[in-house]
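Researcher: Checking consistency across runs. Here is CDP-6-deoxy-delta-3,4-glucoseen reductase again:
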Amino acid sequence: MGAPANVVRLQPVGVEFEVEENETVLDAAFRQGIALPHGCKEGQCSACKCVLTGGEVELKKYSTFALNEIERGQDYILLCRTLAYSDLEVELLNYDEELLSKSIPVKNFTGTVTSVSALTHDIRHLEISLEQPLKFWAGQYADITLPGAETITRSFSMANSPVEGQKLAFIIKKYPNGRFSSRLDGDLAIGTTVGIKGPYGTCFRREGRTGAVILVGGGSGMSPLWSILHDHLGSGEVRPVHFFYGARTRNDLFYLDRFAELAAEHPEFNFIPVLSHAADDTAWDGAKGFVHEVVEAHLRDAAYGEDVDVYACGPSPMIEALTPVLHMNDVASDRIFFDKFTPASN
């Protein structure tokens, strides 16, 4: 018989839950449907950093970029790395009441690969059919585990609308020698059984807001934003929506015809592709430069102030460049939602 579960109490929200032996605090929260701020789940990003105010813990291996020695000496912890050796009291450094209210328990599912197709030279579209529907909010992600002599697990955002929870779609960027993505060109056969665990993620669409919606993406950041966009358009809410998508060249763009159809059906929607390596492309008459620069010009001209929601999904450099742009243009911190894609640690 295993050791009895320890109790974790979260302040200032007063939420309590149990954590089993050898289970991280964050995994225990996920299992019981308590959504806490998180990112990589691997001790790399600091999104789940909190302060331990009572109890005994051990931390699994983590990056000192996420939690430095001084912070650790001051009882800061990463929930994704924390094992409880007693009842714990934890002070949340940031929390989202709407996030807590939207909590969905993380569960394991079995899926079957039904389609793999190319969208560009390095972007693939993957479809997986599940035995049971996965409930999630638009913008969330799941872990996919591939079978084989060496099991590989990676996190990918759903590209489909939440109402289609039994057949999941993912837009995935291929990386040279990527242990997961390299299998998307022929090696991952139709009919392959895969494991799915989720949902995860805090960058999901918030409902019932006013003002404009700004979507900013790059690379496979299209995946969660495609889900958020369709969930919003299907909700019946009528708000101005501006979707900025950063790419290198025209060869990196896709879904242009589908965006044109959406814009024709929804006059309040506008798609703005931005090419960073098109200086010599005389045939391209769209936006040029880095996507955060074009977003900055738009925010400056529109002068939304705090009456705007921003969802930004993509590589870390894009998010880091965009963050000060949003703050300098008075976008409220609680209306900015990020999904920063970080490279796998193994």
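Researcher: Does this match what you'd expect to see?
Model: One thing to look at in this run: The chain has a mean pLDDT of 92.
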